[in-house]
């Protein structure tokens, strides 16, 4: 049987996070830690939170390793865009082709052997503009 033994301050912080933070993942993990401190078994916690036993053990390991910072989802998860290294080329091609995405897609397929859809390039361009816009606003 493995339980997390929490200090009174940690319990207060975790309860506060569980009740007040909008991020569902942080709320779920903090609640799990509080329940473990109350001597609930890992098997029961896995059923309550609809995750595997191993996932609960990973949450416990991370908590013991880095504490409160372990509750949030790690940065950099999810699909990475194929165009990250080609931001200048994307903007150049959009300028040249007057924002005609079909021509831009053909260019990347022929020159760089990158096959993407219109939606992906449009989203990339929006994000690229947002990043570039944020940099200009701060000057």
Strand-residue fraction? under 5%
Query: Stretches where pLDDT falls below 50 for ≥5 residues?
Result: 134-139
Q: Quick one: overall form?
A: elongated
Ends apart, CA distance between termini: 56 Å
**Helix-strand topology string:** HHHHHHH
Please, how many helices? 7
Which structural class matches the secondary elements?
Answer: mainly alpha
**Portion of residues in helices?**
55-70%
Q: Could you give the count of β-strands? A: 0
Q: What is the radius of gyration? A: 23 Å
- Please, what is the average pLDDT? 83
- Count of discrete domains: 2
Tell me about the biggest sheet?
none
Oligomer: single chain
What's the short version?
Helix content is 65%, strand content 0%. It has 139 residues and is an all-alpha fold.
Feature tags:
0% strand; disordered C terminus; mainly alpha; 2 domains
Overall description:
By secondary structure, the protein is mainly α. The chain has two domains: 8-70, no CATH class; 84-137. Helices cover 65% and strands 0% of the residues. It has helices spanning 8-20, 24-37, 42-49, 53-66, 87-96, 101-112, 118-137. α1 (8-20) packs antiparallel against α2 and α3 (42-49) crosses α4.
């Amino acid at each position: 049987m493995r339980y997390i033994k929490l200090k009174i301050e940690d319990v207060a912080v975790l309860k506060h996070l569980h009740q007040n933070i909008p991020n569902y993942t942080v709320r779920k993990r903090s609640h799990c830690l509080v329940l473990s401190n109350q001597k609930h078994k890992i098997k029961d916690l896995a059923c309550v939170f609809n995750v595997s036993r191993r996932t609960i053990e990973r949450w416990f390991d991370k908590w013991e390793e880095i504490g409160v910072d372990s509750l949030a989802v790690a940065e950099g998860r999810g699909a990475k865009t194929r165009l990250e290294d080609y931001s200048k080329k994307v903007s150049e091609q959009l300028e040249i082709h007057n924002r005609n995405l079909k021509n831009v897609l053909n260019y990347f397929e022929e020159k760089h052997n990158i096959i993407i859809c219109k939606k992906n390039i449009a989203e990339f361009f929006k994000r690229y503009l947002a990043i570039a816009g944020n940099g200009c606003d701060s000057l």
